[in-house]
Amino acid sequence: MTAASLVKGKVLSVIGDEDTVVGFLLGGIGQLNKARKPNYLIVDKNTTVLEIEEAFKEFVARDDIAIILINQHVAEMIRFTVDQHTASIPAVLEIPSKEMPYDPSKDSILNRARGMFNPDDF
């Protein structure tokens, strides 16, 4: 797979609270794939953990998604599933929300990266 084939036709997806998702949608990331499935999920108090997990798994399985942005507090709800995803594409990036600050100690990608390097190298 070449770098050009990875970039062509790939989109972002977002899983998060309403403010986060709407902000990205206003920025123009909203897409429907051929099956008319959106590339985002708005998580509110009525959204179940199962719905979040199913959306995450669906986004990981889609070949048109290159990056999954997920609010860190939402990722915590499905931490086991997020941690199971180790492929580089789609990349999973945990982002803060308006209500919940970013905590680097909970970020699975950052923790994996820490394990790859020796602190003495820096």
TrEMBL record:
It comes from Panagrellus redivivus. SUPFAM superfamilies: AtpF-like (SSF159468). GO terms for molecular function: proton-transporting ATPase activity, rotational mechanism. V-ATPase is a heteromultimeric enzyme made up of two complexes: the ATP-hydrolytic V1 complex and the proton translocation V0 complex. Subunit of the V1 complex of vacuolar(H+)-ATPase (V-ATPase), a multisubunit enzyme composed of a peripheral complex (V1) that hydrolyzes ATP and a membrane integral complex (V0) that translocates protons. V-ATPase is responsible for acidifying and maintaining the pH of intracellular compartments. The keyword Transcription does not apply. This is V-type proton ATPase subunit F. Keywords: Hydrogen ion transport, Ion transport, Transport. Pfam families: ATP-synt_F.
